[in-house]
Amino acid sequence: MDPELEPFIPLFPRADLSDPVAERKNFTALATSLPAPDLKDMEVADHTVPADPDVPVRVYRPRDAQGGIVWLHGGGFVMGDLDTEHPWAGRVAEGSGAVVISVGYRLAPEHPYPAALDDVWAVLRWAAEHAGELGFDPERLAVGGHSAGACLAAAVSLRARDEQGPPIRFQLLNQPGLDDRQETWSGRTFTETPWMNRDKVSAIWRHYLGGAPATPYAAPSRAEDLAGLPAAYIATAEFDPNRDEAIEYGLRLLRAGVPVELHQWAGTFHGSQALLSAEVSQRQLGEAAAVLRRALAR
């Protein structure tokens, strides 16, 4: 474990997703306790995307933005919203110079798959259609997120390819959970790792799938064909059950001819980049923003 992260491990709450509705309060308290970035040099506005039902989004618009990204929060498909993601969406916009469209998608178990993906799909299409009004070039549109949000970003990339949806230029997948089967070495072995462990992953997929069989749009690792997908940046944490499935997804993208930048962060655990005082966390956040800036500026 990175020595700067290790002292914080006992302070992390042990989420019990047997009652996800109750756990949302703890997640909100933890997320909103983080310092928000200084956003005085950008416009921040809430919008509603017409859909069935309508989808709330928060748009962060830096000056002279070139590209835009549909940004999807983490929280295991059962936690998180526009407010809990505010510190991170703001940092992504600030560091990358991209217009960030943060999505308040519906949560499981009240709204199991495909509700969240349908919300993201509606926002992706809306963002492409209103790119000019939102302040970015529609040919420089990306998707991205953390954890469950990264899963949704990968899934909507598959759907956009298959259904000839809006062209996606880039997918930024930070510590994605992509496979419900938990058959990798890290998925089988990391039973007591901080914040995310095997039991928690099992609960996440149980709530999200709602008893239905997984499809590639729910768990992108199940997709047989990855050709024609957008270029990707994939970041993984060393002590994370999701680690190996994300690395394998990156390798499969490469074998399918998709450009991939893959970074395995040594000594980290799932979500540890929230510990902003650690040097490794600062490097993780800085790299993700720089990668997005470069991908949308080409």
Question: Topology, pairings included?
Answer:
Layout: H1 20-32, E1 42-49, E2 55-62, E3 68-72, H2 86-96, E4 99-103, H3 115-129, H4 131-134, E5 141-146, H5 148-162, E6 170-174, H6 185-189, H7 198-209, E7 231-239, H8 243-255, E8 260-269, H9 279-297
Parallel strand pairs: 3-4, 3-5, 5-6, 6-7, 7-8
Antiparallel strand pairs: 1-2, 2-4
Keywords: Hydrolase
InterPro entries: AB_hydrolase_3, AB_hydrolase_fold, GDXG_lipolytic_enzyme
Protein name: Alpha/beta hydrolase
List keywords for this structure.
298 residues, alpha/beta, Rossmann fold, eight-stranded mixed sheet, AB_hydrolase_3, AB_hydrolase_fold, Alpha/beta hydrolase
Walkthrough of the structure:
It comes from Nonomuraea salmonea. Keywords: Hydrolase. Pfam families: Abhydrolase_3. One of its GO terms (molecular function) is hydrolase activity. Residues 69-272 form the Alpha/beta hydrolase fold-3 domain. The protein is an alpha/beta fold and 298 residues long. It has one domain: Rossmann fold. 36% of the residues lie in helices and 19% in strands. The protein has helices spanning 20-32, 86-96, 115-129, 131-134, 148-162, 185-189, 198-209, 243-255, 279-297; strands at 42-49, 55-62, 68-72, 99-103, 141-146, 170-174, 231-239, 260-269. It has an 8-stranded mixed sheet with strand order 1-2-4-3-5-6-7-8, sandwiched between helices. Strand 1 (42-49) and strand 2 (55-62) form a beta hairpin. The longest helix is centred in the C-terminal third of the chain and has 19 residues, at 279-297. It is globular and about 45 Å long. 49% of the residues are buried. The model has no long low-confidence stretch (mean pLDDT 95).
